[in-house]
Amino acid sequence: MSNVNFVLVGNPHHGTPCICIEAQNESRSVGRLFASIEADGKIRLDRLGVDPMFRKQGVARGMFDEMLKEAKAYFPDKGIHNCYVYPVASSEMYEAVSQVELEAFYGALGFREATEGMWVKTV
């Protein structure tokens, strides 16, 4: 993950509490992560995407780790205790990956399938 910085984008205190992390190299955005903080102390990972040229270099894991740090710092009163995601292949931000690749990625981050379609990780 050479020369990639993680930047908090937007303000998580306006509207629905959310955290937006952008991975940037010297010239452009190479990844984005959007997460919502729910009232019961759960983080919903809404979207995560990495430019295909920067995949398998730790960019997504870095954004995820940065998001957890921000969630715990900005919302200490919420008692953040777990994160969940519905891994669905999408090309909304970057070129889509397969469902198998998504599930392998979330499994490597420590997520486990809890119910049909929903994966959970204790944080």
- Uncertain segments of ≥5 residues (pLDDT<50)? none
Query: Oligomeric state of the chains?
Result: single chain
Instruction: Provide a count of the helices.
Output: 2
Structural class, please? alpha+beta
Number of β-strand runs: 7
Spatially, the strands of the biggest sheet line up as 1-2-3-4-5-7-6
Q: What form results from the Cα inertia axes?
A: globular
- Helix-residue proportion: 10-25%
Layout of strands and helices, then pairs:
Elements: E1 5-9, E2 18-24, E3 29-37, E4 42-50, H1 59-74, E5 82-85, H2 99-108, E6 112-115, E7 118-122
Parallel strand pairs: 4-5
Antiparallel strand pairs: 1-2, 2-3, 3-4, 5-7, 6-7
Short description:
This protein has 2 helices and 7 strands, in the order ββββαβαββ. By secondary structure, the chain is an alpha+beta fold. It has a 7-stranded mixed sheet with strand order 1-2-3-4-5-7-6, with helices on one face.
Structural notes for this entry:
With 123 residues, the chain is of the alpha+beta class. Helices cover 21% and strands 35% of the residues. It contains 2 helices and 7 strands; from the N terminus they run ββββαβαββ. The chain has a 7-stranded mixed β-sheet, with helices on one face. The longest helix is centred in the middle third of the chain and has 16 residues, at 59-74. It is globular and about 35 Å long. The two termini are 24 Å apart. The relative contact order is 0.17. The mean pLDDT is 83.
